[in-house]
């Protein structure tokens, strides 16, 4: 089951207040991605441990009491594996899409891709202060990027089919953490050889929404496709 806390579209509009604990997310998965209260860094859940890749370049383990405004988790089943070589994000996406096409384009997929990366560009963002800006604006003004060279690590990723574009991002959303757990972030570009990718196919969904005034005042009917592409780094 995909367990999703809030909507990416709500996060895109500036709904950054954490409402669900890391402990609750762990009850519903051991692999996943997301962010933290106030948009404070990038979340990587791997093997049941939740890491925060902060804008200062550090990575820390988060306790069960920390909160998230948005996250996607599941229990990894490792339904199938594939060796992957790619020299760009588009190349990796094309390779991963082949598996999606063969296994069913209307399912959700989580991946765990282990490998040595010739290079990988990642980003994070510092904790935001009120009044919150839209996510695309916060990223354009404060996003911090790094290009890591010759580094071994793991990508945790989520694929959502097209019909989920009103509640998440259609396509791939990837986060990275190094094997030494000292570097990580949202993936913007990469080059990897001899990567091993494990897929978990998910055919059920649960969405838990914030129950507060700021969430219920959002206009979620507006078209955010352009902003979502900017957020994911695909525009």
Salient structural properties:
alpha+beta; 235 residues; 60s Ribosomal Protein L30, Chain: A; 6 helices
List the helices and strands and how they pair.
Blueprint: E1 2-5, H1 8-12, E2 20-21, H2 22-27, E3 31-35, E4 42-46, E5 49-53, E6 59-61, E7 67-68, E8 71-74, E9 80-86, H3 89-103, E10 108-124, H4 135-142, E11 144-160, E12 171-178, E13 184-202, E14 205-208, H5 213-216, H6 225-232
Parallel strand pairs: 1-14
Antiparallel strand pairs: 1-8, 2-7, 3-4, 3-8, 4-5, 5-6, 9-13, 10-11, 10-13, 11-12, 12-13
Descriptive account of the structure:
- This protein has six helices and 14 strands.
- The relative contact order is 0.25.
- It has one domain (2-227): Hypothetical protein, similar to alpha- acetolactate decarboxylase, domain 2 (60s Ribosomal Protein L30, Chain: A), CATH 3.30.1330.80.
- The protein has a seven-stranded mixed beta sheet.
- It has helices at 8-12, 22-27, 89-103, 135-142, 213-216, 225-232; strands at 2-5, 20-21, 31-35, 42-46, 49-53, 59-61, 67-68, 71-74, 80-86, 108-124, 144-160, 171-178, 184-202, 205-208.
- It starts with a strand and ends with a helix.
- The protein is an alpha+beta fold.
- It is 20% helix and 43% strand.
- The protein is globular.
């Amino acid at each position: 089951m995909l367990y999703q806390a809030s909507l990416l579209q709500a996060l895109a509009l500036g709904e950054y207040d954490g409402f669900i604990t890391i402990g609750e997310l762990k009850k519903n998965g051991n692999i996943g991605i997301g962010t933290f209260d106030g948009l404070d860094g990038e979340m990587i859940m791997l093997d049941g441990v939740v890491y925060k890749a902060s804008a200062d370049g550090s990575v820390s383990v988060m306790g069960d009491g920390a909160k998230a405004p948005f996250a996607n988790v599941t229990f990894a089943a490792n339904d199938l594996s594939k060796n992957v070589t790619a020299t760009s994000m588009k190349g990796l996406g094309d390779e991963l899409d082949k598996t999606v096409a063969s296994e069913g384009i209307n399912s959700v997929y989580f991946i765990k891709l282990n490998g040595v990366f010739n290079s990988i560009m990642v980003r994070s963002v510092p904790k935001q202060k009120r009044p919150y800006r839209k996510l695309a604006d916060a990223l354009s003004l404060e996003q911090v990027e790094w290009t890591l060279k010759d580094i071994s690590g793991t990508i945790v990723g989520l694929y959502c089919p097209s019909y989920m574009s009103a509640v998440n991002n259609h396509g791939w959303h990837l986060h990275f953490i190094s094997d030494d757990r000292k570097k990580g972030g949202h993936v913007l570009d990469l080059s990897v050889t001899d990567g091993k990718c494990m897929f978990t196919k998910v055919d059920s969904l649960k969405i838990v929404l914030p129950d507060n005034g700021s969430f219920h005042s959002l206009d979620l009917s507006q078209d955010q496709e352009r902003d979502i592409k900017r957020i994911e780094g695909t525009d």
